[in-house]
Design goal:
This protein is mainly beta. The strands form five sheets. A six-stranded antiparallel beta barrel has the order 7-16-17-20-19-18. Helices cover about 15% and strands about 50% of the residues. It contains five helices and 27 strands. The chain folds into three domains: about 1-80, no CATH class; about 85-95 and about 190-390, Beta Barrel (Thrombin, subunit H), CATH 2.40.10.120; about 110-185, Roll (Pdz3 Domain), CATH 2.30.42.10.
Length: about 400
């Protein structure tokens, strides 16, 4: 009888323990934020379910064992059931003016008494800081910065900085430069940038657009540039530098009809650039598409829409190699590999300037190309489209 009971308990307890271990493991791997269509339910596995609700766009929901026993919670964001977006793939010229001016380097100043250590550095100003105000005057350009410093005539000035979101005030004294007889504080600054990228999508209903899939950063400091103003214009690809191992390729483009603004940039985030555009961003050759959420994407065949020549936007075959877990927004959501013979022959795979090219699977926009692996030009990263939708404010209706 005792052996029978032991065997009976063994056959009951072992499966229960097994289920608990699987449940614990799966619960640890559920993203902190889940995007659901209205009234939809995600079945994480045969034991765990996450149920969404409508009416609210951003709230917490419980993760339930067998749909009944709560074992955790996630943040839920709702996506409109019938959302349709015009896919991009066309090259765009991006112009960005920074909020304030960005400090990109510090330098000594040569005076009549010899070289003096940078007054900016001595006061604690750092590379990557944004100068927002000088003596309570809002700074909008590098030229204005130089004028305000020179106007001090060697008296103390007050500088308001933004350092990674924290406002910091510094007091320092400019010195007269022997080179041009003007007053300086010993720093190099940048107030704008420009380049070529690829449009990801355009929403006709709200006029919102998204591009790049990754942030615009300063080339010297790696700092994500804060936007004061920006715009996108038409661009034309004039040549391709083919990618090779250890040597990334590049789409070389030029701005076309710069006076015709296609849209204004409002945000530059980890997930790309975003703003409001006009109907010139509609790709007339492609019908609007549904979007595919992370839970709907499968590893396997997919396509990208991009432009590598005068023929315009074309579809090229890729394979989604791996879907990555992400708790916070970022441009590295999935690993993709180019399989298309034409794209491999002409470009070598993924090249700079292709960032933002929409990834299509099952006739849905599921993401965008963001990076290439330097030593494997046919392999790169893509971002989940839900992160871009979130930063485009298309989940807040």
């Amino acid at each position: 009888m005792k052996n029978f009971l032991n065997r009976y308990l063994y056959y009951i307890l072992v499966p229960i323990l097994f289920i608990m271990l699987i449940t614990f493991y799966e619960a640890q791997n559920i993203p902190a934020t889940i995007f659901l269509r209205e009234n939809d339910t995600v079945k994480q596995n045969m034991f765990l379910k996450v149920k969404g609700m409508n009416k609210k766009t951003d709230r917490n929901a419980s993760v339930n064992l067998l749909g009944v026993v709560p074992v955790g919670s996630v943040s839920i964001k709702s996506v409109k059931e019938n959302m349709l977006l015009y896919p991009g793939g066309q090259p765009i010229g991006v112009k960005l003016n920074t909020q304030g001016v960005l400090v990109v380097a510090l330098s000594d100043v040569t005076t009549k008494n010899g070289k003096i250590i940078s007054p900016a550095a001595s006061s604690g100003i750092q590379i990557g800081d944004d100068i927002l105000k000088i003596n309570d005057v809002t700074i909008k350009s590098g030229e204005q910065t130089r004028e305000e410093i020179d106007r001090s005539e060697g008296k103390n000035i007050k500088i308001l900085l933004d350092r990674k979101g924290e406002k910091i005030e510094k007091i320092l004294k400019p010195v007269k430069s022997l080179e041009d007889n003007g007053y300086k504080i010993g720093l190099w600054i940048r107030d704008s940038t420009a380049g070529v990228g690829t449009l990801t999508f355009y929403d006709k209903e709200s006029n919102m657009f998204a591009a790049l899939g990754h942030p615009i950063t300063d080339i010297d400091t790696g700092t994500i540039l804060k936007v004061n103003s920006g715009e996108i214009v038409s661009s034309s690809i004039v040549s391709i530098k083919k990618g090779a191992k250890g040597n990334p390729g590049e789409l070389k483009g030029i701005f076309v009809n710069e006076n015709n603004t296609l849209g204004n940039i409002y945000k530059n985030t980890q997930c790309g650039v975003f703003g409001k555009g006009n109907n010139q961003l509609e790709n007339k050759k492609l019908a609007p598409m549904k979007i595919g959420l992370r839970s709907e994407i499968k590893e396997g065949p997919a396509k990208i829409l991009t432009t590598i020549g005068k023929e315009g936007v074309k579809s090229y075959d890729i394979k989604i190699e791996k879907l990555l877990a992400q708790d916070v927004p970022g441009p590295k959501s999935m690993v993709i590999r180019v399989t298309d013979k034409e794209l491999l022959e002409k470009a070598g795979g993924i090249v700079q300037g292709m960032s933002g090219s929409p990834i299509i699977q099952n006739e849905k926009i599921v993401g965008a190309v963001t990076h290439v692996l330097v030593n494997k030009p046919d392999v790169g990263y893509g971002i989940y489209i839900e992160w871009m939708l979130n930063d485009a404010n298309l989940l807040e209706k």
